[in-house]
Amino acid sequence: MKSNLIIILFVSSNFVFGNLLNTDLSNIPEEDTSSYVGKKISSEFKTWQDKNSGYEITQWTSVGSNSHPYFTINSFIDKENVLIFSKRSGDKQLYKLNLISGEMIQLTNLKRLRNIEHLPDFKKVWLISDNKLYDLDTETFELNEIYNFADFPYMVGSFTVTCNAKWFVFSSNRKEQSDGDCEYGPYEIYKLNLHDKSIIPIIHITGFNIGHLQANPKDPNLILYCWQWEALGRPKLVGDTPIRMWWINIDGTDGGPFKQAFGLHATHEAWTPDGKYVTYSGDFRFGPNKGKEILGMQSLDGEFNKMYEASVWHAHQTMFKDNKHWISDLYNHDDRKLVMFTRGENEMEKTEILFEHESSWEGQDSHPHPRFSPNGKYVIFSTDKTGEAQVYTVKVNLNKLK
Questions:
Q1: pLDDT single digits (tens) 169-184
Q2: What is the DSSP code (8-state) at residue 350?
Q3: Do residues 103 and 41 make contact, with C-beta atoms less than 8 angstroms apart?
Q4: 201-218: buried (b, 16+ CB within 10 Å) or exposed (e) per residue?
């Protein structure tokens, strides 16, 4: 009985394995494990004390090309975790980086991922991929399709989300693109209601390229934007607009240009964390102050409007929540250095070189785009000084300063 049982099992087993061995496996797709949501990447970071500044520098990434979001976007999920982009698996994807362990977790697996908007209070990221708008939960990693722009007549350009998470605000070029023309205007700003999915125009028929939309971090009714053309050398209309910085309220009933000094070219504008002011970098192109470079700070109504002499040219700049500490990624006009200024009433009280980032400035991923962490412990930035763009922090510990 035992012997027969063994023979029966052997024959049955041979039958099963025989079928598998005779099956053509060439058409069975292999599971792609190179890129998937939830994938964990082991720590790649290295930390050292900069020999020139004395500050602690950490390079968090080293595989592939990596960068953190644009400097106007809050990339910090909380005091220990931050959002970064990585192309380590091919397509650009969003990752969550832990600033203690260095572990990274993949959050998206999408095609043609563009920029993002992030509201930490709602634990949500908004992003566009293949004409579809999604929101992403930074805790559960759940991705939800919010709106399909496939039937919208124009392409979504720059976008932002109001601080109450009610409106997705975006610009569009209403001119149909064709070979051989400048592909510009008219531009319009729209708002998409994230609840009922209705789209309403805010601004009509604006000739300049509308970009850098930024919702006020405290007031859901205010939108900052800029009029711009392209940089020299690009196959479109190029040059600087006479007044770059503009604002509008969410209903489109009020707004206009910021007050601007004669001869000044302002750029890389950003709200302060309290939403009361807008900061910017700039240089005087003509007039009695020609050649002077500044960092500027002003209120929406222009009643508070101060410029501080700082040789930062067109640097990306942001202010810490104390409205005192200022970070910039250029110094001495075009030196590729990360610089922290301490603002006084009428002049800079202190200037510190934090790190020579040596960015090539070739492409957005290589731009440092520095930003303070909400608790003032770090400044996060990117640079391609090692050959490919990587993500770094410098520990500034503003939260420990008196």
A1: 999 988 776 666 666 7
A2: E
A3: yes
A4: ebbeebebbbebbbbbbe
